[in-house]
Amino acid sequence: MRCIGYIGPDVRKITSGNHPQLGEAGGIYQFLRDLHTECGPVAEFCEGTTRVVSAPTPIAFKPQVELCNKPAIQMEFLAQVFGSKSIRFINGEEGKQRRQKYDAFLSNVWLDEYFYVFLENATGIVEKWCSKRPGESFSVHTDLYHIACKSAGMTMFGDYFKNDQNVDGFMDLYWKFWPTIEINLTDGIPPEGSKERHEFDTVVKKVHDICNRLKKERGTTTGRRLVDAMLETGLDGTTISGDMLVYMLTGFHSTGLVLIWCLYFAAKHQDIQQRIFSEVDAVLGDEELKRDMLPHLKFLRQFVNETLRIRFVTPIAGREAEDDMDIYGFHMPQKTQLVQALSATMMDETLWPEPERFDPDRFRTKETGDRHQLSFCPFGFEGKRTCPGQNFFYMEATIILACLFRKFQVFPENDVDTGITYGFLTRPRGEVFVKLQKR
Ligand code: HEM
């Protein structure tokens, strides 16, 4: 079926667009899934007062691959955190050039150096978990978010994040303002002058104070980092802090979440965990993990990919049509705001039979050959504006998981089915609790 559907109040009258419908549907993923069930592969809805088009199929993604400009949706509120000129929003030539400068720090040359940071941090968490009492049940959230935050901070912003108290302090602030950002998706913006708005602004200011401290420390530390390239742009202080936060927050939150989901699925599927053990033992033997071993951990990569697919941590990306374009024969005028429902694509049963079944073998080379390249898109599509942290993420996650599974077998706590919250990021509704057994 091909149709442009429209759900929600009349766009000319509304002030909050589909926000209430997002809440009623349970989150952005379900909202888009229901919208497309009703309207077919091309559908239109409202974000705030802005008309948005969603078309979550590889065929619809194809003409969008070269688009670089971010859409203006969610701008008003997020600009409070990142600044309206930060990389989160900046388009055109300036956006491309800034990304190019920054992304160099996530390239393979730098990953050679980051490898040792990831390994050191992974060794730290293994040592910590070695001291757990046999059969002790614990939530994996604190430690996995901690390691993700520490690794992102140390590699991109310097030794401030070597200190565990600084890592915890930064995360405490983040957990205070994150819920407000997410609630904004369904309930709109807390009004100016309200208590909620005041608390939010206070916390955001404290996070910016940390960024300012990090900038000042650069003069006294050795070793070049991403933050140095940011400082060299000569941009104003708010924009540099905004750019720091975009890389830091996107870098640590999604990575921490995927690690949590990985432990959840490993605990739940003991047969799959056994296959990971066999591979890790065969590749690492008795040696310390080395960089050249990582590509040989193929099944572990399949396991991570299946986790990324079935829990699509980042459910959507977005673009603005730079010129007039056609999607499925529908005309999209220049400046149309496009939502790319990555989640709906990765759960589409015509592309992924039995999409709710966790099966890392979907990513065996034999299987991937037959699939449309754009069916698997947890980091967005190829192009100059996709997630710059993919290789960073894969290296970090592989090191942490290889170190953990080399040492421990993970078992579920009784109530391992934690449920799912579909928000800005797809996360467990409760915390994931596990028990460990040393291997
Ligand atoms: C599981 C881990 C991750 C997932 C699923 C993920 C996913 C995504 C997605 C879907 C986007 C939007 C892409 C688009 O618009 O086409 C994005 C943007 C971004 N990601 Fe990631 N990401 C992850 C890890 C990371 C890491 C580790 C870093 C940094 C070290 C990072 C940095 C960024 C930045 C800076 C952007 C914004 C780019 C821009 O606006 O130009 N991400 N990410």
Count of all domains: 1
Ligands present: protoporphyrin IX containing FE
Classify the fold: give the CATH topology: Cytochrome p450
- Tell me, rounded to a whole number, the average pLDDT: 88
**Anisotropy-based shape:** globular
Report the C-alpha radius of gyration, rounded: 22 Å
Measured as a percent range, the helix fraction is 40-55%
Q: Which homologous superfamily in CATH is the superfamily?
A: Cytochrome P450
Largest sheet: 5 strands, mixed
N-to-C series of helices and strands: EHHEEHHHHEHHHHHHHEEEEHHHEEEE
Distance between the termini: 53 Å
Q: What would CATH call the architecture?
A: Orthogonal Bundle
**Cross-sheet strand order for the largest sheet:** 1-2-3-8-5
Oligomer: single chain
Which segments are poorly predicted (pLDDT under 50) over 5 or more consecutive residues? 1-15
Q: What CATH first level would be assigned?
A: Mainly Alpha
Detailed description of the structure:
This protein has 439 residues and is of the alpha+beta class. The protein is 52% helix and 11% strand. The protein has a single domain, classed as Cytochrome P450 (Cytochrome p450, Orthogonal Bundle), CATH 1.10.630. It has 16 helices and 12 strands. It has a 5-stranded mixed sheet with strand order 1-2-3-8-5, covered by helices on one side. The chain has a 3-stranded antiparallel sheet with strand order 4-12-9. It has a two-stranded antiparallel ribbon with strand order 6-7. Helix 6 runs antiparallel to helix 7 and helix 7 runs antiparallel to helix 11. The longest helix is centred in the middle third of the chain and has 32 residues, at 237-268. Bound molecules: protoporphyrin IX containing FE. Protoporphyrin IX containing FE (HEM) binds next to helix 11 and helix 16. Protoporphyrin IX containing FE binds at residues 70, 87-88, 99, 106, 152, 246-247, 250-251, 254-255, 258, 313-314, 317, 378-380, 385-389, 392-393.
